[in-house]
Structures are given as C-alpha cells and as structure tokens.
Amino acid sequence: MSDTKSHELFINGKWRAGGSRATLPVINPATEKVFASVASATVSDLDEALASAEWSRKAWSSRPAKKRGEILVAAARILATKIEAAARDLSAEQGKTIAEATGEYTRAVETLEWNGRHAEELSAPIPMGPNRMIVPEPLGVVAAFTPWNYPAVLIARKLAPALAAGCPVILKGAEETPSVAVHIVKSLRQAGIPEGVVNLVFGVPVHISRHLLSSPIVKVLTFTGSTAVGKQLAALAAKNLQRCILELGGHSPVIVCKDADLTKAIPAISEYKFECAGQSCNAPSRILVARPLYGEFLSRMTEAVRKIKIGQPDDPATEMGPMANARRIEAMRCLTKDAFDRGARIETGGTRLDRPGFYWPPTILTGVPKDARVLHEEPFGPILTVAPFDTIEEAVEEANATDYGLAAYFFTDAADTQRKLTNSLSAGAVSVNYLKGVSADAPYGGVKQSGYGYEGGEQGVRSFQILKMVNGLSSFG
Ligand code: NAD
Hints:
Blueprint: E1 5-7, E2 9-11, E3 14-16, E4 23-28, E5 33-39, H1 43-62, H2 65-81, H3 83-94, H4 98-123, E6 126-127, E7 132-138, E8 141-145, H5 151-165, E9 169-172, H6 178-190, E10 198-201, H7 205-213, E11 218-224, H8 227-240, E12 243-247, E13 252-256, H9 262-274, E14 284-290, H10 291-306, H11 326-341, E15 345-348, E16 363-366, E17 383-389, H12 392-399, E18 404-405, E19 407-411, H13 415-424, E20 429-432, E21 447-448, E22 451-452, H14 457-462, E23 465-471
Parallel strand pairs: 1-5, 8-9, 8-11, 9-10, 11-12, 13-14, 13-19, 14-17, 16-17, 19-20
Antiparallel strand pairs: 2-3, 4-5, 6-7, 7-23, 12-22, 15-16, 18-21
Helix pairs in contact: 1-7, 2-4, 2-5, 2-6, 3-4, 3-6, 4-5, 9-10
This protein binds nicotinamide-adenine-dinucleotide.
Nicotinamide-adenine-dinucleotide binds near residues 149, 205, 233, 281 and 380.
C-alpha cells in the first residue's frame, strides 16, 4: 500500500478526488523520487467548479467589502501559524531552501493581509466632482493559473485582490507544488470563505485552461508563466473577451556603472540571482559592466558564485537547492551548449552536477555572441552572462535588446545617470542599487513580451473591477 500524500481538488466547499480518480505524480527535485500525488480534474469537475463559482458570485459580490477584507486578514493570520510546516512541504516539492520557502510564505501572508486591509477603501465609490462618480464593481468569476516557482506568493497575488474586489475564483494550482494551494485555500476556508467562492483544481493544464476559458461564466483570466503559454491563453480568452492579466517571462539586465560600489553590487546580484536556483521571472540574467570595472567585477563575481553552497534544500547550510524539474536542466544544457558552440567562454559552472536531483551550478558566461540563444530566450535558471560596455548609450541599447521588459536594475550614485537610465530602460520595474522581490503594496507588470495588466497594490485590485462611470446624480447619498 502506498503511503504517499494525496492532494485533492476543492470544489463547492468540499475536498475530493477528481471524478475519474486519476492522479498526477509529485516529484521531489532533490531526489527525483515521486513522494506525493495530486488529483486531476475531469471536464465534469471543471463544470462543477464553474457552476459553484457562478452560484456564489451574487452573494460574495454584494457582501460588504469590509467583511470580505476581514476574511482575508483572518486567513493571513491562520496561514502565518502554519508557515513552518507549509515551508517544509514547499521546499520538498519545489527544491528551494527552507529559508527561501519561509520567506516566500511570509510574503504571501503580507499579500493576503494588505488586500484584506484595503478591500473596503478600494471598493468605495470615487467622487469625480459634483454629480459624477466612479462606482467600482467586481468583474465576475476569475480563472487563475499559477506556476511552481513562487507558488505561495503568486497564488496570494491573484486570489487576494480578486476576493477583495468581490470576485469568486477558480484557481488552477501548479501540479508540481500542490501543497501550497492546498494550505492557502484551507486557510481561507478556516477564515470563513463561503462555499463556491474559491475552487481549486489541478490536472492537465492545457485541458483545464481550454475548458474554463471557453465558458462565458469566466470574466477574467489571470496567468503567470511563459510568454508562449500566455499568448495561447490570451487567444482563448479573446473568444469571450475575457479581461487578461498576463505576468510573463523576463530577461532582466543589470547595468553596473563605472562609479558602482562592487562591495554592494556583487552580493546584491548574487543573492537575488541565485534565489530559487534562478527560477524567477525578474531574476537578473544579463550583467553589463562599465569597461574600467569589468575585469575586477568578473573575477570577484566568479569567486562569489563559486562559494555558493549547493545542497539538500532542507539542510540549513544550503544556499541553493536543485532546479524544479528535469525540463529546466535540459533548458540549461541547451542554452549553455549553444552559447559555447558559438564561441562563448564558461567562467564557472556549465554542466549538470553528478549527483541525484536536478542540480545545475551557478554558471557565468562571457564573450557571448549577440545571436546566442541565451541572450534572447528567458534563461529561468542559474545562468548569468557578463559583458563590458563603453558608454551608457551602448549599455541601454544592450539592456533593451530583448523582446522582454519585466525588470531592469542598475548600480550608480550619479543622479543624472540614474535619471537617464530610469527614463530609457524598457521595463515594468526599474531598481537602483537594489535587487529584491515585489511587494504587496506596489503595482507590477511587464512591457513588450513580458505581458500586460498589473498585479499588486491598488492596481492589482482594480484589475478585477469594472469602473462604472456614473454621471448626473442628484446626490451621492
Ligand atoms: P510551461 O510554460 O509549460 O509552464 C509554466 C506554467 O504554466 C506551469 O505552471 C504550467 O502548469 C502552466 N501552463 C502550461 N501550459 C498551460 C496551459 N495551456 N494552460 C494553463 N496553464 C499552463 O513551462 P515550464 O517548463 O513549467 O516552465 C518553464 C518556463 O515557464 C520558463 O522558461 C519560464 O519562461 C516560464 N515560467 C515563468 C514564470 C514566471 O514567474 N513568469 C513562472 C514559471 C514558469
């Protein structure tokens, strides 16, 4: 008899297996062994989720926003008490260290709480002068698709603002990291979320998205993942004109200017880049260094990266765990080989580690020709390219030379250079002398092929609202 944990669907307020009883395996990326399973939804499970979300819509949208917010704040408190156990589950499923998983859950709690605290104010009518106002209204049922790299934060960034705005949600959690969606949905249920308002499904992603988006019940699509899949989903959503919030890939540059303080820049880049084994949409991936600093930067960065302690994610000494799945290892192999075959130099790393688990070491490539794939495709892993530049204009041109536009970073204290770079970098977010994750209170969204729409802060809630313009009222009473 198997003793593996089995994660269920949550439909219409009940935890249960999928209609066909089919399950998908959950693999520990540090051992490559199956250690759990997750239920796979059938078409009739999805229809039930659609019907229950639609059935719950009226009552949830007309519940006072303050009360909706109180449930989110209560769920945040409940989730906070479970972080230790939940972080262990996440680490085993995803491969990130326990410290990283704990930090991620802390941010998920903050996100639930921020949206809960602002639900009332962001649902209130907005006066527009005498006799005019904007009335925010919930858009309706949301289909939310979340990936495996930061499953806790990304679920919170979709669920919390949608629920605060008054929208029921059908969430497809990542099949690779099911425990995260289960912990968060259980916290919401314990906090009193009514039946049908949150439904959780897993299964074959392409079948689920196709079925949910073909339903006129769904009014909003929110997705985080690759640009290729985002485009497929946007095409499906076009049929019913569902609003889309697409948080897609990135290929973020860091410009290290000639006055940069390397004692700050190198640890900041190294820590943020190799968090979650580099599998973050806004991780830096292309470092451009002012030529006078290039030699010193490269040798100190290479030294720092070689010292990163790779190991089992549940070992407190580990600084970087394995990649999440075999697909990422293959992607690292192909990108490195392509760059090398075209003449790039591998300064460190470059081959899979010879041990069980999906381990790829921090890798630095230099002399990478402009047509190498690694300069155009999102690496989504622990690979960095480093190149020198002579003028700020040249650095900007290089920084903007991909189809992506999610995040960009630079290091300089010169105010005029800061202004120039802020204005000329094509990115949804620009950070100066600083690399950190997104916060609950700020809008975040990409440009170019990195997507459209916003998550986070006020704009994150507005993404799930209709802003109804009302003209000519006699009074606002
Ligand atoms: P993928 O594009 O197949 O999957 C990414 C995520 O999208 C997964 O959670 C998957 O379940 C989901 N997905 C895939 N096809 C779907 C569909 N038809 N309908 C609904 N959901 C679908 O790739 P992958 O191998 O799992 O991940 C690698 C790539 O995904 C990376 O190269 C990266 O570009 C991208 N990615 C980006 C983010 C991000 O934060 N922007 C997160 C995870 C993955």
